Amino acid sequence: MTDAAPMQTRFHAACAVAREAGFLAKRRFLDRSSFTIGFKGPQDFITEVDGEVERLIQSRLIEAFAGDGFIGEEGAGLVGSPGAPIWVVDPIDGTSNFARGAPHWCVSIACILGVSIEVGVIYDPMLDELFCARRGAGAWLNGAPMRTAETADLGKATIEVGWNMRSGLAAFMALLERVAATGAGVLRAGSGALGLAYVAAGRRDGYVENHINSWDCLAGNLLVTEAGGYVSDFLAGEGLRKGNPLIACAAGMKAALVKAADIKGLAL
User: Fold this and answer.
1) How many distinct structural domains can be found in the chain?
2) Structural domain of residue 170, as residue ranges?
3) Can you tell me the distance from the alpha carbon of 112 to that of 194, in angstroms, rounded to the nearest whole number?
4) Confidence of residue 44 (pLDDT cuts 50, 70, 90)
5) Is the whole model's pTM more than 0.90, yes or no?
6) CA-CA distances (angstroms) from residue 198 to 12, 82, 106, 123, 191?
7) Sign of torsion, CA 249 20 215 94?
8) SS3 261
9) Would the pLDDT of 228 be above 90?
């Protein structure tokens, strides 16, 4: 399972499945009466579309690659054969945007082997943008090679600061203040996966978060790495199952952003 041909096949399958899943999600998004909105916790939106899209992705990938493992944000899971690749999926990253009618959300699919991210695909169906990468082979946006920005000065940078309730308001505000104090422009757009894809494409200079889950970031992490950027060691410890802090940025931003963010528990 570790030679190039099977992983290349998984890469192409992930691209196709991400598009199919995105088309389904977009159709539901455009018909606001087709779903209801609920909450898993404070500001943690959920719709039945999330589960519907996750089931589609799981069925397609496991049918094509029997024996692979599967981890989905909405609870879908499958233990694969020993040593087999594992798919890590967020069917709709940016559900709060999706639920409120804001067209900034995506499908995120990663494939890992051990502690190596082999395939990363993020599809934004609203803009028809497919961000994809394969370990050691580069990163692309709709077929064109991607490179991270050449920015080396935080005072000229745009940094996305991710937020959730897991780390608490105080930790988020402290991180936001430390990054903003450097003179960087800061923002939060509501999709960590797209935030990372934008770093890979040079649209952002960095992305930082006190805690993020694997399904939100693994695909994007590979995009950034393969586009020439820096990503902290997210899979250290229990990162796959329990999440970790994260910094991802253009290579020239690494030292300054790691110092400024000063995130507790970050594995470099």
Assistant:
1) 2
2) 154-261
3) 19
4) low
5) yes
6) 21, 34, 12, 12, 11
7) positive
8) helix
9) yes
